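Hydroxylysine kinase, Caerostris extrusa. C-alpha cells?
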Amino acid sequence: MDIKRMVSFDDQNFHIKVSKEHKNPYISQISANGYTLKITNTLKSSLEGNFDSMHTSMIHLDKKGMHTPVPVKNLEGETWTLERVPLLNEDENVPGPKLCGVRLLTYITGVPVSTQEYTKDLLFQWGLLLAKFHYAVEDLDRLGFENKSVFWNLEHIPELRKYMEGLEGQRLKLVQSVLDRYPSEIEKNMDRLPKGIIHGDFNENNILVQLKTTQKDETVYSVDGVLDLEDMHCGTYVWDLGLMLAYTLLDCKTMDPLEGAGHALAGYLSLRSLCDLELPLLKMCIECRLCQSLILCAHSYRTDPSNEYLMSSAKAGWSRLEQICSTSNEDLLSKWKEIRQSYNNKK
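C-alpha cells:
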C-alpha cells in the first residue's frame, strides 16, 4: 500500500494505492490510479445528510460527463462512516469524541491549476468549467442543499468582524472598507440575485488540468477536473463566480491579475450569461472572498502555526485586495468588456 498526504485546509486527505487483492464485493476492479481517502472535520461530519447529498452530487455530475470523483462503498455497502480521528485545526480542549466522516473516493488524474503557469487559455477554460458545472447541477435535487449552512458563503461575510484580531493599520482599514459596503451593495440585493446549487470553493487546488504531449512535442492541456464538493450549497451564482475570480487573482503572475480574471470571466460568459444586477456586483464579491480568505486563514494559522497551507493565500492576497479595491467598478467592467470582445472578434 502507498499513502501520500494531500494539501487541505481543515480536513485530512490522502492519495492511496492498494494491491489488486481485496475482499470488497462492491469493487469489481481496483483502480490503477488509486483512491482518495477523505477524513472530514467534525463540524461538517455532524451535518445531517451532508455526505449523502454530496455523494448524490458526485454520481449526478459523473453521469453528466463531468470529470469528478465518485464514492466507493465499504464492506458494509455504505459510502461513509463516522470514526474517531484527531484532526487539524480543531480545538483539542473541547470535550467529547472527535467523530469524523471517513470516505473513499475514486482518484481522478490531472494536476491542480495551481501548479501551472496562468495563460489566457487556461484562465478561460477555468471560467468555462464553472459555467459547465452550474449547468450540470441545474436539475440536481436541492434536498440536502437548501438548508445547508456553509460558513464561507456570502451571507456570513458580516461575521468576519469577529475574527479580525491582529489586523492593524492599512490592512484593517482595507477590510473594514469592504465590510462597511456590504449592506448597501450585497445585503439589499440578496433576495433579487439568481440562486441555485453552487460549488462553493472553485479554487486553484480543486480544479485539475489534463496535460498531453502532441506529436510535435508541444504540451496542450484541458481544464476539466472538479474536486471537493464539501461546500456545495444553495447560493447565488454571482458569489460562486466571484470567489472563483478571486482565486484567479491570487496566483496570477503572467499578466495583470485583473486582466487574468477578465479572461476567466470571458470563459464563463461564453456559456452562461449574467443578469444586469449580477455583473456590477462581481467586484464586491471578489473583495469579500479575498477578505474571507485572508482573515479566516490568518485566524486559523494563529491556532495552528504548523499548517503552512493556511497562509498560502496571504502571500499575494493583501496586494491583490488593495489593487481591486483601488480600481473603480466602471474601469474594471470596461477592462473586462474589452477582453470579452476580443474573444468575440476571433469567432
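Strands lie at 2-6, 12-17, 35-40, 81-84, 99-106, 111-112, 195-198, 207-213, 219-226, 233-236.
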